[in-house]
Amino acid sequence: MKESGKTEGKISHIISLSNAWLALLVVVMGVGAWAYFGFQLTTGLIVTGMRNIVVWGLYIITFIFFIGLSAGGLIISSSSYVFGAERWKSISRVATLLAFVTVAVAAGTIVADLGRPDRVLNLFLHPQLDSPFIWDLIIITSYLVISLADLWFMCRADFARKGSILALGTKDVSDQAVARDKKVVKAISFVALPTAIMLHSVTAWIFGLQMARPWWNTAILAPVFLASAMVSGLALVILTALIAKRRRILDVDLGVLSDIGKLLAVVVLVDFFLKFAEILTMFWPSAEAELSQLFLVVTGPFSPLFLIEWTIGGIVPFLILAYPRTRRTALGLAVASILLIVGVFAYRVELIVPGFAAPLLSLPPGQALGQYIPGMSSYAVTGNYSPTWVEYSVTAAMIALGAFIVTIGAKIIPFGGHSTTTTE
Amino acid sequence: MAMAKRYGMVIDLGRCVGCQTCAVQCKLENNVPLGLAWNRVLTMGGSHLDTPKGTYPALSMYHVPLACQQCENPACVKVCPVGATFQRPDGIVLVDWDLCIGCRYCIAACPYGARVFNWGDPKHIPDFPVGSPDVPTRPRGVVEKCTFCVHRVDKGLEPACVASCPARARFFGDLNDPESQVSKLIMEKGGYQLLPEIGTDPRVYYLPARRKGYT
Fold it and tell me: Domains plus CATH for chain A?
């Protein structure tokens, strides 16, 4: 009783610290919940911008985007153990927390996308193991468990020292116990790294295995997902670490972040090399079907996204990170990280919507869209999609929930900052 | 022992006149909601319905009725995470409306655009079911598609589109029986499948529209 009272007191103190930010997040979550429960759940997915040609939209885009954002987390914390990158340990807790939260948000957007969320348990009661969706469900669940366990063992001794309920009753803070925790964290790292790689690959295979969608159906999709996930994931870790550093809850050397920035520059190169290889393979044979699909993205209606991805989301941040003088400043790192995250988001949109927009059989009058509006044709040959306010609200609420957990987590979890004495 | 039945359909594009009767009959029979269609009659020609391509007098046009291709190797069945889309022993691919979670992965996987989703509450004009009483009512939020009129086939009847075709362009039968009308038509008239390169191996075959200047 005494312990939980103490924690409650602490939480209310925390909320008073950054209440404006948290209040904003709560409002966004409230609007999203109203949009979801008041509209989408009661009238169906008809309130979204999705129809029968483009059947996946902002929810699935957000899903793969957030799966990608998680990449920085376990890769950084695992690398520090698996490859002995000792300096990175100072941000491994932030990184792991982000990994957990982003994957949890991704899982949430999947549920938001379902036409029958009331039957979500069917995924566990009647799993059909040929489906990449089920593979992803298994890997997402494993990833959530692993990252949570990883985080807990990293922080257990600190929780126990403070007598926090988050120590789950453990009180042992002897050197022996701390050494045992470290051993466990190291062991988890060896599992976590391959799990993280599988998470991105399996998410890519949801799309990449579909013969019906030439835009997705390429073996290079899994490597591209891994690379682009690392781009956005590392960028998110750098960005969050910079914010935490500025708010004095994380004691991290700018040199460490700048080193990660250097790695990020290399990953950006790999990512764009893989994407270029795919584009060239589609372009060079000059086959009409492939060309029309490619031009839909490169020069057609989706070209603004393509431009954003390659210029301000690609070349510009790469140059910022490649020049030591800009890479070694907090501002340079922050700008590059934001631009890369924007670029990866553009890539996610560019993957999903054009994949649907031009079906293989597009003969007039086309497909029945799924809504009858008097005086208008229910049919269309090619697909259109723009999200509705419901989709924007629900997605914003999901992201706000993630930000909320990270903000609270940053106060509860000792990151190894100025206020704690935990780092080795 | 006779081989198990494997139902298939043949559509003679040389006989199809593009009258849309099969599309309308399908919609009625299966009580397909407003804004949705299981069966569509597409135009192979110009960029609009019932328009030819080319310039006079070198014009060409024919129609391609398109519904679920009832694939031997169905992409939709493989991707369904809950087994709501399944294949019966006679090959017919169906959707269980009590199991479907509405993820629409099967729509993403189908190369033929044969599947449609109930984005909102299914609506009808007039506002009550008009089709076969054997077709269950679908709820909101599930995927639906052509069933080969399984409720009719199980009674020994032909699918509604076959029975209603005024041009007699549609044929239905057992592909496992080499003596069946469908097997013979495919053999003798060069029946082909749509998008064979995808590897789904449809059990709906088309006979070329030779008499309209197309091969």
Answer: 2-412 (1.20.1630.10)
